[in-house]
Amino acid sequence: MRTTLALSAAALVAGAAASGACSKKSGGQNGGEVAATQAGGEESMERPAGGTARSGAPVETRPPNVPSQKPAFAGQTRAPHRPSGVELDVQTIAGGLEHPWGLAFLPGGELLVTERAGRMRIVREDGSLSQPVAGIPEVDARDQGGLLDVVLDPAYGDNQRIYWSYSEPREGGNGTAVARARLVTGERPRVEGVQVIWRMTPTLDSTKHFGGRLVFARGGDTLFITTGERSILAGRRQAQELDSALGKVIRVRPDGSIPPDNPLVGRDDALPAIWSWGHRNVQAAALHPETGELWIVDHGPQGGDEVNVVRKGKNYGWPVITYGEEYGGGPIGEGITAKEGMEQPLYYWDPVIAPSGMAFYDGDLFEAWKGSLLVGGLAGEHVARLELEGERVVGEERLLEGKARFRDVRVGPDGAVYLLTDEDDGEILRLVPRGG
Q1: What is the pLDDT of residues 233-287, one digit of tens each?
Q2: What residues are annotated to the active site?
Q3: Are 338 and 321 in contact, with CB atoms under 8 Å apart?
């Protein structure tokens, strides 16, 4: 199934102006804010109101959730609108997917996609879906849980190995896990030799904040795994505890063993797989194409989605510091935004966009987007394009605003941008320049 929708540059940012009046904030401020229940987090947020910002003015025009909180430096939030002037064709590659979550590109033009309900499928070049890949372990598919990300082994051409993350059902609850196996394609696709290479500990009884993005480091000898702190208070505090995998970025070898240069190796009071800590729920991660460093976008609470460069042994602050507040209002902890020994985000959104999926644009189809960071928005229902100068965000553009909840963003080998929509009848979309 392939259909094409042509959008002008003006139409890319006009959708929310017509539909944005539907939301209310749960913190008692004026309408048009992101609404979420105390336990619901990003998955239960409604679409925020908004409009088309004029060039040079900040894209975000709604008031912050916590007006008393101020950025630590100029440009840390509310970047100026930088329209690229690009006109798009939006092609529907495939539909009929139940809340697709992760996407990978197979050799020969086929795609590999996960559905949160627990299915993995191959998308043929004509857009048809294979039957579910056989052999995938059981997942806990309640609420935010299920089958999450999928990536190819860097040596896939030789070993046909894939890796995926999922919420693993366990006695007493569940937790994020990562498995690998050999993918056998064909009319009846399957995985063989399944190995679970990493499991989150401790097990908690929660259906939220699994994290789950997978990113291979340059060279393919280590794998980054992002996690969440499970949303409930019993997990939140563990984002700062080094004997817990909750709220961390994990770094392991492809077989799950521990690299000897991880920052906590040799400490009896810490998990050796931890690379960084103080994260809330990381569902967006990608390597910078020039530096090779891992960048993430972390879900904030009510306010405070964060862009961070994740560095060895660093503490990113949650829940001690945050540019957000509790759902329904009220400070988180002491209500502070900075503390010695804790990293400041490069950029943050308040109100939130609920980020999921990200990619640096390094293709050749969109010259105006070269070097931009593309971030999917669930509650925001748009793709944020951030213009960068080094590690500074100097401009922002909102693409496809109001079209869908965007779960994943990938740049294909053809230079097109591929998107997953988080819907009961989810789609794979392909963005190309109009007429391209």
Answers
A1: 999 999 999 999 999 999 999 999 999 999 999 999 999 999 999 999 999 999 9
A2: 209
A3: yes
